Amino acid sequence: MAGRGGRGRGLSRDPSAEDDTEPRPVDPAKEQRKATDICYALLTARARTRVELKDALLRKGISEQTAELVLAKFDRAGLIDDAAFAEVWVRSRHTYQGLGRRALAMELRRKGVADEIAAEAVAAVDDEAEEDRARDLVRKKLRTMGGLDDTTKIRRLVSALARKGYAEGLAYRVVREELRRAGEDTTTLDDLTQD
Q: Looking at residue 92, what is its pLDDT?
């Protein structure tokens, strides 16, 4: 008996064959080796938080119990250090991406870093460093805004700083001072920031 389109010709299903939908038992030793290999591969690419590693293991089909067992071994070996991760992350993202403290704290939270560890790492960016980085960002952006009117410049500059996690007061102050330094009219900005 021929099937449609020639499929299944001469083949009949063996009713005693195992159903492929049932999960096969997992060998715990193999699963631990797989989880260990995944963690090593991820940590070779870059430092990761414990939460990032656990999420990756679960996405790859590793059981929660095995994930916790393997991560505990990595913890004991000193291969997972959320505080060191946070410190490096803050330094890098502040220096190269120009992120302010608020944005840095949010990123660390999303990566699963505990609030107290994140706060300590973010505190390494002091007021002066944050303001200096904001000024650098404004100066760089100002160079590309030659033909724009004052209101558009102000809106774009303040918005750019806000997206990078800088506080509103700092953003307005830095934009005002940098516009004055560049010889721009700040009347519009002065009107916006008066109480």
A: 95
The answer to whether the CB of 163 falls within 8 A of the CB of 127 is no
Amino acid identity of 168? Answer: E
Tell me if 83 sits within 8 A of 121, measured CB to CB.
yes
CA distances from 192 to 51, 150, 163 (A): 43, 12, 19
Which CATH number, 1.10.10, 1.10.357, 3.30.70, 1.20.272, labels domain 28-80?
Answer: 1.10.10
Architecture of domain 81-122: Orthogonal Bundle (1.10)
Structural domain boundaries in the chain:
28-80, 81-122, 126-195
In the numeric block, the tokens 């992120």 are attached to 99
What pTM value is reported for the model? 0.75
Q: What is the pLDDT of residues 151-169, one digit of tens each?
A: 899 999 999 999 999 999 9
Q: Token pair of 132, please?
A: 């200096």
Residue 111 has pLDDT above 50, yes or no: yes
What's the burial of 40, exposed, middle or buried (CB within 10 Å: 0-12/13-18/19+)?
exposed
Query: Mapping DSSP to helix (H, G, I), strand (E, B) and coil, where does residue 99 land?
Result: coil
Residue with tokens 């960016």: 125
